[in-house]
Amino acid sequence: MSGPRPVVLSGPSGAGKSTLLKRLMKDHEGVFGFSVSHTTRNPRPGEEDGKDYHFTTREAMQEGIDNGEFIENAEFSGNMYGTSKAAVEDVRAKNLICILDVDIQGVKRIKETDLDPIYISIQPPSMEILEKRLRDRQTETEESLQKRLEAARIDMELSKEPGVFDIVIINDDLEKAYEELKEILNEVSADAQKL
Ligand SMILES: Nc1ncnc2c1ncn2[C@@H]1O[C@H](COP(=O)(O)OP(=O)(O)OP(=O)(O)O)[C@@H](O)[C@H]1O
Ligand SMILES: Nc1nc2c(ncn2[C@@H]2O[C@H](COP(=O)(O)O)[C@@H](O)[C@H]2O)c(=O)[nH]1
């Protein structure tokens, strides 16, 4: 694929990916573009179809997967998630640096493609803090919260493996984590301008 290298943001649910991403997109309008994933989960209050996600059904999403429309897809906490080829192409057509927010399964699948992104993991300072953030967010049932915490334990182990991520950011103090992310992405966007 041509154009600037995309950026994959991953990390446990509740680590702070969306918080950091939304701020980044707002502060750097016209530089980064979000790859809008598909999901079968229900929208949360305030989430917009086509902006936060393409909210869809299992049947429609499976049909798209079977038709080869997805770069990657995964089952997470009882729902399907996936990155369509169109989601990435839409961002690239606007000449923006494409940012993808995917779980660890998505990271592994993207590594099998020719997308060649920079892989950044956003990690919480501890499981206890992660659980508190997820509970305080009030978006999960007890069942989905437990599934997310189980997935987080796996994610936190895998993210320590050498070579999985280019950069790991611990999101303890939000300001510090944001500065760290900005610094890394400034390098990416400076490289992109040289292209
Ligand atoms: N550094 C931080 N300190 C305290 N709270 C934080 C911090 N970063 C994020 N939060 C809060 O933690 C919660 C989870 O953050 P966020 O929704 O951004 O996580 P996420 O990684 O995008 O999760 P998911 O993968 O489930 O979408 C939010 O309520 C957010 O406001
Ligand atoms: N493999 C993929 N994972 C994705 C995608 N879009 C989001 N995600 C990940 O799902 C979980 C849960 O997200 P939530 O919005 O329900 O809290 C989180 O870890 C995301 O990173 C995708 O297209 N592919």
From TrEMBL:
Keywords: ATP-binding, Coiled coil, Cytoplasm, Kinase, Nucleotide-binding, Transferase. The lineage of its organism: Eukaryota, Metazoa, Chordata, Craniata, Vertebrata. Its main location: cytoplasm. Monomer. Interacts with RD3. Belongs to the guanylate kinase family. One of its GO terms (cellular component) is photoreceptor inner segment. Pfam families: Guanylate_kin. It is an enzyme of class 2 (transferase). Residues 4-186 form the Guanylate kinase-like domain. One of its GO terms (molecular function) is ATP binding. This is Guanylate kinase. It is found in: Cytoplasm, Cytosol; Photoreceptor inner segment. InterPro entries: GK/Ca_channel_bsu, Guanylate_kin-like_dom, Guanylate_kinase, Guanylate_kinase_CS, P-loop_NTPase. It catalyses: GMP + ATP = GDP + ADP. Its EC number is 2.7.4.8. Residues 135-194 form a coiled coil.
